[in-house]
Design a protein that fits this description.
Blueprint lengths: L2 H8 L50 E2 H17 L1 H7 L2 H18 L12 E5 L2 H5 L22 E4 L6 H18 L8 H20 L19 H14 L4 H16 L11 H4 L9 H11 L10 H15 L14 E2 L6 E2 L10 H24 L9 H17 L58 E3 L2 E3 L14 H4 L1 H15 L6 H5 L22 H4 L7 H14 L50 E2 H17 L1 H7 L2 H18 L12 E5 L2 H5 L22 E4 L6 H18 L8 H20 L19 H14 L4 H16 L11 H4 L9 H11 L10 H15 L14 E2 L6 E2 L10 H24 L9 H17 L58 E3 L2 E3 L14 H4 L1 H15 L6 H5 L19
Antiparallel strand pairs: 1-2, 2-3, 4-5, 6-7, 8-9, 9-10, 11-12, 13-14
Length: 1090
C-alpha cells in the first residue's frame, strides 16, 4: 500500500511539497523542484500550470492520466477507508488526491458556467521533444520555441479543440477529491472540497456540450483514448455522489450510462463482446465497468432498481473475461487471457503487448475488489437483486492471487513492484532514477546495463512479453515496455492492498485468508467449536478382541491413509500434514475446476484415488457412503474405541467435496451437472512427483492438463450421480448424530443435493463416460447405485413418498433385468464381478431393505432380499471352491482359506480391497440380522447366521493384517512386517521439498510411512502366493481409498461385538458357538472332591 506513494513522489513535477518522500535531503532522496514555468512560453496559456505528476519515464504531463490517478486513489480511499486508516496510510492517500486535484484546478485555466468559455490544459510537453531528452527534470530547458530542446507547450481542450474525454476525467477526479477532502482527519480541507466541486460541475457541463475525443493542434497526444461517454458517465456518477441535491446531474446520470451502453463502437459493446470491449483505450480504466459498479453498488446512486441487473451483468462480463481460466494465452488470443502455468490474467500477447500488462491487471484487481466490497455491502443491507457472499469472495480471492503474482509469486520469482521483496527491478526505465543525486555526475544511459543509482520504489513496471507461451522480461532500461512504469499503472495498487487489509480486519481470527478463499468461513462466520479434547484412551479389553488383534489400531490407521490422499487445502486436523510428527503433505491442486476443459468453479478438496492424483467422484462417493454406513451401524464400536470424531470428520470431508462437485444444482434434473472426474488418466500417469508441485490449468497434451469432466444432460452419468446421492444421504445421517462434529446445516444442505442428484440419476440412468480421454473406473452398472441412493435418501427422510415408495421397485426392476444388473441368485458368483469398484451394491441395497426397520420394502420382499445377500456372501465363504486357473472368483486360497478375488495373471484388481468390502458387508448384515431377530420380526433367522458371518469376516481381517502364510500385514503401519514401499507418489517424495522423489521402479523404501494403506495383495499363480514390497508392483502394492474404506467399519464391528460379549465369552468360544452376547453365565465350578 505504501510503496506507490514513493513512486508518485518520484514522478512529482513543480515545487515539491514538504512531505515528498524522495526529495533531495531525505534518506535516499534525489528529486528537486522542476518545470517551474509550465504554462508559460511558446504555445502555452500564460498561466501557472506547475505541479501534478509526470506520466511515464519522461516529463510530459497528461491531464488524462493525472485525472485517472487522482480519481482511482480517491475512489479507493472512499471504499477502503477502513483499510487505509488501519494501515496508517490514510493521510498519504488524501495528500496525493489533493495534489492531483490542485493540479487539475490550476489546469482549468478558464473556468465558467458557460460551457463554451471553459479551457482545460490537456497536455503539458511535446511527446517528440521529450523523447529526445534523457536527463534530470530539474535540468530540462523550458519556454523554448518549437523544434528546440526547450519547447514545452501547454495544449488546452476548449470550444475550438473540444475534449469531452479529458474534461470528463478531470471532473470525475475533482469529484473524488471533494468526497475524500470532506472526510475527518489531519488533511480534511472543506475549502478545497468546495472549490473542487464547483470546477467539477463546470467541467462536466463542458464535457456534455463538447463530447469529442481531444487531439492537440499539432504534435502527438500522450494518450490516444477513443471513448468519451465512459468518462462523462463516470463524472456524472461521482459528481452526483458529491452532492445528491443536484437533480440536473443526478437525474441524467443513469441516462448517460444507458445512452453510452447502447451506442455502437467504442462505447460499451454487448455483453457477449466483453473481451473485445476491454480494449477501450490504452489507459485501461475499464471505465464502463467502473460506472456500472458505482450505479449498482452504492446506495443513493441515481440508477433505479430496474437497472441494477444490467449494471451487474456488465461488470460480471468484464470481470469474468479477466477471470476466464479456460482462455489460455496463445498468438491468437483476444486479451485478457490466462498465462499457461501461473494463471496470470495477461493483457497483451507476443509483440502486440505494447501496453503495461501489470498496470492493466492491477486496474482489474482493484475493480474486482471494489465491486466485491459494494456487492457485499448491498447483500448485508438486503437490497433487492443483490447476491450472496460467494461472488464477493471469488472476486477478492482472484484479485488477491493476481496481486501475489505481480509482487513475486510468479514463475520468474520477480516482484514487479519496485522495492517489494528481495528480487525486484533495479533498472526501471525512468530518467530521474537513472541520474545520480549528485548533480555533478552524469545520468546513466538509457541503453546501459548498470543499475539505476536511485531506487524507484513503488513503480509497477510493465511486466512480461509473452511469445510462444513463454515469459520474457529483462531488468534493463532499454526494455521500454516491460520495465517502464506509469502513474496510472501504480495508482490501483494502494487500493487493492487496502482492500486486503480491510478484509483481513473483518475476518475472525479463526478465519485465515486461505480458509476464506476456500469458502470455509466468512467475515460474520460463527466461531468454530473449541478444539476437541483428546479422545479418551480406548478400552484395551475391548480393543484386543481375540487376544492378539488390536481392532482399535486397525480402525484408526485408514484415517491416516485418507489424510495422505487428501487434495486441496488440508484441514487443521489432517494427521500427515507437514509440521505434524512424520507429516509430509501440504495443500495441493488449489485450482481444481479451473482451466482448460474445466467448469470454472472451485472443485478443490476430496481425496486422490490411487497412487496418482486423479479424483474420481465414484470412489470418493463410495468411500464416503461406506464410512457413513459403517458409522451408523457400528456407532457404539467407533465411540468405544475413541474414533467416532474421526469417522464423522472424514465423512463430512467427502460430503463437502461432493457438494462442491455438484456445480449446477437444480430441482430440474436436466439442469444438473456433477463433476465426475478431475484429472486426465494418461497425463496423470506420466507425472511422478508431489501433488503440491504438479502443474495445473494447462491445455490438452501438456503436463498441466487437468480437466474437470461433468456428468450432465449431454454426458449422462446416473451411476456417478446415484453414488454421490447415496454418499450425501449417508453424510446426512452421520452429521445429525450428537457429538463434537454434529452439523445440522451441513446435513440439510447435503440432503437437498442428495435428492436433486437422485432425481437426475433416475432421469439419466446411463453409465458415465468422459467426452474424451479415459475414465478412472469403467463401472458398467447403474441401477445398483440408484437403488442404493433411494434406500439411503429414504432413510434420511422417511416422509418422502416420492422416494421411499419407489425404492423397493427400483430394487425389483434392477434385480429382474438381465445383464450387469443383478443376475439370478444361482449366478451370484458371476454377479460379484459387477465392476472394478467392488461395492457389492445390490447386496448392500438388499441388506438395507431387509435389515433396517422402516425401509420402504414390504415384508413380502424380505425373503428375496435375504436370499440375495446369502447367495453373495455364501459365494465368498464357499470353502469347497479352492483357487485354480479355472476358478470363477471369489475362491479360497489352498492353505489359509483367504477369500480371493482374482486368479493368476487375471488378478488385475486389489484382492484385499474386495475382500475387505465383503468382510464389512458380512459384519453389517450380521448386525442387522441380529437386531431383527431380537425384535422378533417375522421371517428372521436365529443367531447362528450372524455369528457365522462375523467370525468369517474376523478371520479374513486377521489374514490381511498378518495372519497369513507370508506373515505380512497388508495394512501399512499394523504389526511389525508391513509394506515399506507402497506405490504412491507423495509417500515416495521426501518431506524436504529440495530433495527429489524416489523413482517408481527403485528399491529404496519410501521416506514416508503410508499408514493405513491397504495394498492390493497377492497374485496367485499355480496355487502359490507371489507378492513383492516394491513400488513397481503396480497391482499388489498400490492402495486406493475405496480399498481402505471398509476397514474401519469392520474393526468397529469387532469392538462393538467384543463389548457385547460377557466376560466369560471370549471370541474363540463365541465363534465356536459355545456362547452368545446374552448367554447365561456358566455354573460355578464344582468344589474339589473331599
Amino acid at each position: 500500500m505504501e510503496l506507490p506513494f514513493y513512486f508518485l513522489d518520484a514522478q512529482a513535477s513543480g515545487p515539491l511539497p514538504v512531505w515528498n518522500r524522495v526529495a533531495l535531503g531525505k534518506p535516499g532522496g534525489w528529486r528537486g523542484d522542476s518545470h517551474l514555468f509550465d504554462g508559460q512560453g511558446y504555445d502555452a496559456v500564460d498561466a501557472n500550470v506547475t505541479g501534478g505528476w509526470y506520466d511515464l519515464d519522461g516529463h510530459v504531463k497528461s491531464t488524462l492520466t493525472i485525472a485517472f490517478t487522482t480519481h482511482t486513489l480517491g475512489l479507493s480511499g472512499l471504499i477502503f477507508e477502513v483499510g487505509f486508516r488501519d494501515a496508517g496510510h490514510w493521510d498519504s492517500v488524501v495528500q496525493q488526491v489533493q495534489l492531483g486535484a490542485r493540479y487539475l484546478l490550476a489546469a482549468h485555466v478558464r473556468a465558467s458556467d458557460d460551457p463554451a468559455a471553459n479551457a482545460l490544459v490537456a497536455q503539458v510537453g511535446d511527446v517528440d521533444t521529450d523523447a529526445a531528452y534523457w536527463g534530470r527534470p530539474e535540468e530540462q530547458q523550458e519556454r523554448g520555441v518549437e523544434n528546440t530542446p526547450a519547447y514545452r507547450p501547454a495544449w488546452v481542450a476548449d470550444a475550438v479543440f473540444p475534449g469531452g474525454d479529458v474534461a470528463g476525467a478531470a471532473s470525475a477526479a475533482l469529484a473524488a477529491a471533494v468526497l475524500v477532502s470532506r472526510r475527518p482527519g489531519l488533511h480534511q480541507d472543506l475549502a478545497l472540497a468546495n472549490e473542487a466541486y464547483r470546477h467539477a460541475v463546470q467541467l462536466l457541463r463542458y464535457a456534455v456540450e463538447y463530447p469529442r475525443v481531444w487531439r492537440p493542434p499539432e504534435g502527438r497526444v500522450r494518450y490516444n483514448t477513443t471513448s468519451v461517454h465512459d468518462h462523462i458517465a463516470l463524472a456524472h456518477a461521482l459528481v452526483c455522489m458529491a452532492d445528491y441535491t443536484q437533480p440536473s446531474i443526478c437525474n441524467v446520470a443513469a441516462n448517460r450510462w444507458q445512452a453510452g451502453y447502447l451506442e455502437y463502437g467504442r462505447t460499451p459493446a454487448p455483453l457477449n463482446q466483453a473481451r473485445v470491449r476491454l480494449q477501450v483505450d490504452a489507459q485501461n480504466v475499464l471505465p464502463w465497468a467502473s460506472v456500472a459498479m458505482l450505479f449498482s453498488g452504492i446506495s443513493k446512486t441515481p440508477a433505479s432498481g430496474d437497472f441494477d441487473w444490467q449494471y451487474n451483468q456488465h461488470i460480471a462480463s468484464v470481470l469474468d473475461a479477466w477471470r476466464d481460466t479456460n482462455d489460455l494465452c496463445s498468438d491468437v488470443s483476444i486479451p485478457p487471457c490466462q498465462t499457461p502455468t501461473s494463471g496470470f490474467a495477461y493483457f497483451g500477447v507476443d509483440t502486440r503487448a505494447n501496453v503495461a500488462v501489470n498496470g492493466k491487471n492491477a486496474a482489474a484487481q482493484l475493480l474486482a475488489a471494489m465491486h466485491a466490497q459494494l456487492l457485499e455491502t448491498a447483500a448485508r443491507l438486503e437490497r433487492p437483486g443483490t447476491v450472496e457472499l460467494t461472488r464477493p469472495r471469488e472476486l477478492r480471492c482472484w484479485a488477491h492471487g493476481q496481486l501475489r503474482h505481480i509482487t513475486g509469486d510468479n514463475p520468474m520469482g520477480v516482484s514487479f513492484l519496485v522495492g517489494y521483496g528481495d528480487a525486484y527491478p533495479r533498472s526501471p526505465r525512468q530518467r530521474s532514477a537513472a541520474c545520480p543525486a549528485d548533480r555533478s555526475l552524469p545520468c546513466l544511459p538509457p541503453n546501459g546495463t548498470q543499475p539505476n543509482p536511485n531506487t524507484l520504489s513503488g513503480a509497477l513496471v510493465g511486466g512480461y512479453l509473452l511469445g510462444s507461451n513463454e515469459f520474457t522480461w529483462s531488468d534493463l532500461r532499454s526494455n521500454v515496455i516491460g520495465n517502464t512504469a506509469g502513474i496510472a499503472d501504480s495508482a490501483s495498487v494502494p487500493g487493492m492492498a487496502a482492500a486486503l487489509v480491510q478484509l483481513a480486519a473483518s475476518l475472525p481470527e479463526y478465519c485465515p485468508m486461505a480458509d476464506y478463499c476456500a469458502g470455509l468461513c466468512y467475515p460474520d462466520s460463527p466461531a468454530p467449536p473449541p478444539p476437541s479434547p483428546p479422545p479418551p484412551p480406548p478400552n484395551v479389553d475391548v480393543c484386543i478382541v481375540d487376544g492378539s488383534l488390536d481392532a482399535c489400531r486397525v480402525m484408526e490407521l485408514p484415517f491416516y491413509f485418507l489424510d495422505a490422499q487428501a487434495s486441496g487445502p488440508l484441514p487443521v486436523w489432517n494427521r500427515v500434514a507437514l509440521g505434524k510428527p512424520g507429516g509430509w503433505r501440504g495443500d495441493s491442486h488449489l485450482f481444481d475446476g479451473q482451466g482448460y476443459d474445466a467448469v470454472d468453479a472451485n472443485v478443490t478438496g476430496g481425496w486422490y484415488d490411487l497412487d496418482g492424483h486423479v479424483k474420481s467422484t465414484l470412489t470418493i462417493a463410495f468411500t464416503t457412503h461406506t464410512l457413513g454406513l459403517s458409522g451408523l451401524i457400528f456407532e457404539v464400536g467407533f465411540r468405544d474405541a475413541g474414533h467416532w470424531d474421526s469417522v464423522v470428520q472424514q465423512v463430512q470431508l467427502g460430503a463437502r467435496y461432493l457438494l462442491a462437485a455438484h456445480v449446477r444444482a437444480s430441482d430440474d434434473p436436466a439442469a444438473n451437472a456433477l463433476v465426475a472426474q478431475v484429472g486426465d488418466v494418461d497425463t496423470d500417469a506420466a507425472y511422478w512427483g508431489r501433488p503440491e508441485e504438479q502443474q495445473e490449468r494447462g491445455v490438452e497434451n501438456t503436463p498441466a492438463y487437468r480437466p474437470a469432466w461433468v456428468a450432465d444432460a449431454v454426458f449422462p452419468g446416473g451411476d456417478v450421480a446415484g453414488a454421490a446421492s447415496a454418499a450425501l444421504a449417508a453424510a446426512v445421517l452421520v452429521s445429525r448424530r450428537p457429538g463434537l462434529h454434529q452439523d445440522l446445516a451441513l446435513a440439510n444442505e447435503a440432503y437437498r443435493h442428495a435428492v436433486q442428484l437422485l432425481r437426475y440419476a433416475v432421469e439419466y440412468p446411463r453409465v458415465w463416460r468422459p467426452p474424451e480421454g479415459r475414465v478412472r473406473y469403467n463401472t458398467t452398472s447403474v441401477h445398483d447405485h440408484i437403488a442404493l441412493a433411494h434406500a439411503l435418501v429414504c432413510m434420511a427422510d422417511y416422509t418422502q413418498p416420492s422416494i421411499c415408495n419407489v425404492a423397493a421397485n427400483r430394487w425389483q426392476a434392477g434385480y429382474l433385468e438381465y445383464g450387469r444388473t443383478p443376475a439370478p441368485l444361482n449366478q451370484a458368483r458371476v454377479r460379484l464381478q459387477v465392476d472394478a469398484q467392488n461395492v457389492l451394491p445390490w447386496a448392500s441395497v438388499a441388506m438395507l431393505f431387509s435389515g433396517i426397520s422402516k425401509t420402504p420394502a414390504s415384508g413380502d420382499f424380505d425373503w428375496q432380499y435375504n436370499q440375495h445377500i446369502a447367495s453373495v456372501l455364501d459365494a465368498w465363504r464357499d470353502t469347497n471352491d479352492l483357487c485354480s486357473d479355472v476358478s470363477i472368483p471369489p475362491c479360497q486360497t489352498p492353505t489359509s482359506g483367504f477369500a480371493y478375488f482374482g486368479v493368476d495373471t487375471r488378478a488385475n484388481v486389489a484382492v484385499n480391497g474386495k475382500n475387505a468390502a465383503a468382510q464389512l458387508l458380512a459384519a453389517m448384515h450380521a448386525q442387522l440380522l441380529e437386531t431383527a431377530a431380537r425384535l422378533e420380526r417375522p421371517g428372521t433367522v436365529e443367531l447362528t447366521r450372524p455369528r457365522e458371518l462375523r467370525c468369517w469376516a474376523h478371520g479374513q481381517l486377521r489374514h490381511i493384517t498378518g495372519d497369513n502364510p507370508m506373515g505380512v500385514s497388508f495394512l501399512v503401519g499394523y504389526g511389525d512386517a508391513y509394506p515399506r514401499s507402497p506405490r504412491q507418489r507423495s509417500a515416495a517424495c521426501p518431506a524436504d521439498r529440495s530433495l527429489p522423489c524416489l523413482p517408481p521402479n527403485g528399491t529404496q523404501p519410501n521416506p514416508n510411512t503410508l499408514s493405513g494403506a491397504l495394498v492390493g495383495g497377492y497374485l496367485l499363480g499355480s496355487n502359490e502366493f507371489t507378492w513383492s514390497d516394491l513400488r513397481s508392483n503396480v497391482i499388489g502394492n498400490t492402495a486406493g481409498i475405496a480399498d481402505s474404506a471398509s476397514v474401519p467399519g469392520m474393526a468397529a464391528a469387532l469392538v462393538q461385538l467384543a463389548a457385547s460379549l460377557p466376560e466369560y465369552c471370549p471370541m474363540a468360544d463365541y465363534c465356536a458357538g459355545l456362547c452368545y452376547p446374552d448367554s447365561p453365565a456358566p455354573p460355578p465350578p464344582s468344589p474339589p472332591p473331599p
